[in-house]
Amino acid sequence: MAALPNMKPPKGWHSRGYLPHFDGGSIPQTVTFRLADALPKAVLDRWENELATMPEARASVERRQRIEHYLDSGAGQCWLSQPEIAESVENALLFFEGQRYGLEAWVVMPNHVHALFTPMAGHSFSEILHSWKSYTSNAANRLLGRNGEFWYPDYYDRFIRDEQHFVRAVEYIEMNPVAAGLCLRPEDWPYASARFRWSAGFQPAPKGSAAKMAALLPVLPDRKPAGEP
Length: 229
What we know:
Layout: E1 12-15, E2 20-23, E3 29-34, H1 41-51, H2 56-72, H3 83-95, E4 101-108, E5 112-119, H4 125-144, E6 156-159, H5 163-179, H6 194-199
Antiparallel strand pairs: 1-2, 3-5, 3-6, 4-5
């Protein structure tokens, strides 16, 4: 079927120079994007040298695990730990929920953001992400009284393979503050989908339980933040 007027086809696989990305249209995908100073280039370069002899599939898993562990250690200035900035990021994620994408889960950590969302027809993954980052970087720099790069240009994304993968992705995102030692319960973290889901009486599904995927669908707030990202 030919693309409708003014509707761009999904990009498929593409790259910003460091990581490969997949833009597959209306399928759920996870994304992690981080602050510009959260992971120094010297650290990444050292890891690349250490992983160079590994098979690519194994190196990809190891690279991702190292990145996640490093980010959770609280590296960089952690501007997202400031309530006004964290709230502006969460508001941007929520603003077009149900219009341009379905937002299944999210968490705003001190130096990075995880989200699971499904682009709607006519709105690509990369365009949605660009909108989030562009709006929030400008807002954050105003609050901080600074200029310059706020977000690291690249990001890490994965498309959801099946229901069990969906469940694991939601669990990982909402448990991230707990795993990083920032709170005891996921619903206690103030800038995450867990507080809406758990306050409505839902509980996380047991690991590997696709049968409870419906219980992991988001309980979104009724409010819509003012201003358009």
